[in-house]
């Protein structure tokens, strides 16, 4: 599995922790072990440019996902094919503000955003209420079991 995590900001974070989270989600979702993923942490100006360019929405956002090979979750008997899952771009400054509003730590918010981004790359969405319930429930389960396993 090739998980690349790059921090292009001055915000301090443990890149290895995000790679571990991605591996955990990949295992839970039966993603081929050689699947590639990139997670990049950027400043508000960079994510604002991407947000406007790709979503036609001005201003910064918390996370953007850019799928490549349109991989979908596998099963125990049949993991996904090997491929390039895509790229996730996270803005720590936006995450810090959201964490304060939600009442948890910035690192928990960024781990949540990384999980959210991976699920988007796997085809999950939250445009409709039923899709939102499914995606957010899975996102919560994956993050909480990852965090519980680390203690």
TrEMBL record:
It is found in: Cytoplasm. Binds 1 zinc ion. One of its GO terms (biological process) is rRNA processing. It is an enzyme of class 3 (hydrolase). GO terms for cellular component: cytoplasm. Its cofactor is Zn(2+). The keyword Transport does not apply. Coiled coil: none annotated. It comes from the Bacteria. Its EC number is 3.1.-.-. Zn(2+) binds at residues 116, 120, 126. Keywords: Cytoplasm, Endonuclease, Hydrolase, Metal-binding, Nuclease, Ribosome biogenesis, rRNA processing, Zinc. GO terms for molecular function: metalloendopeptidase activity; RNA endonuclease activity; zinc ion binding. Single strand-specific metallo-endoribonuclease involved in late-stage 70S ribosome quality control and in maturation of the 3' terminus of the 16S rRNA. Belongs to the endoribonuclease YbeY family. This is Endoribonuclease YbeY. It comes from Jonesia denitrificans (strain ATCC 14870 / DSM 20603 / BCRC 15368 / CIP 55.134 / JCM 11481 / NBRC 15587 / NCTC 10816 / Prevot 55134).
């Amino acid at each position: 599995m090739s998980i690349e995590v790059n921090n292009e900001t001055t915000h301090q974070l443990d890149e290895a922790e995000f790679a571990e989270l991605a591996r955990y989600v990949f295992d839970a979702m039966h993603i081929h072990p050689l699947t590639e993923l990139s997670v990049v942490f950027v400043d508000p100006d960079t994510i604002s440019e991407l947000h406007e360019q790709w979503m036609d929405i001005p201003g910064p956002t918390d996370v953007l996902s850019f799928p490549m090979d349109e991989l979908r979750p596998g099963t125990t008997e049949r993991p996904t094919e090997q491929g390039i899952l895509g790229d996730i771009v996270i803005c720590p400054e936006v995450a810090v503000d959201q964490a304060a509003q939600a009442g948890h730590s910035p690192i928990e918010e960024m781990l949540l955003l990384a999980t959210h981004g991976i699920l988007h790359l796997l085809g999950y969405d939250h445009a409709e209420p039923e899709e939102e319930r499914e995606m957010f429930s899975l996102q919560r389960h994956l993050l909480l079991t990852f965090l519980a396993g680390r203690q």
